[in-house]
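Shape matters. As here.
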Amino acid sequence: MKILALGDVIGSEGVEYVCSKLRAFKRENKIDFIVINGENSAKANGIDPLSAEALLNGGADVITTGNHVYRINAVYDYLDSSEFVIRPANYPESCPGVGYTVADCGFQRVLVMNVLGLTYMEPLGCPFAAVEAILEKEEGNFSVSILDVHAEATSEKAALARYFDGRINVVFGTHTHVQTADAMVLPRGTGFITDLGMCGPENSILGIRSDIIIDKLRLHLPKKFEYAVGNVTAHGAVFTVENGNCIRAEAIAF
């Protein structure tokens, strides 16, 4: 099974670009399953039903999110009703949405989980415990497993990947919007990359207009963030899973 994971999609331009390229990439690279982080996919910061549906219609099988998932009120009911858009599992259970899903793609049942890191992030529940609970609850109900660790600290992403090495097929990090150069297969067969990167404008700072970020860092004054425009590049990774193990992890861009 070949799994394509794409990093944070930035704004409407990112959504349009990904949707225009996804089906051809899937066909040319014989991809079986696609998971995309969509937490920045709305025109404003966050995700909304319009951007989520566009990504699903464009070819995504499951959309993961992160710390911006609840920025737009319109997404609350959508998260409760959607089977294929998930939020971090270590938010309180009373929050809208669920932290994982099991997607049936015909020849495989794929468990996709999402957690939020704690270092420099929100004080949520333990991500290790959240994943343990999901694996225990869904034991025997899936054949392939994927975890999106939406986190600031690279060490936290690596710690989760290595803790669950051999128990989860694919673990990838999102949130920092810069693709890391460490796509690998861990000793017990888990495919891992610290961060997938982003699907957003090249001429930017993490997807935001460069002048805004520069002024923010130079002057330390409040600034309203605006997405940059221009050429978009999609970043992510392709993982190949065979006989219960990931045998190949490759960072990609298109």
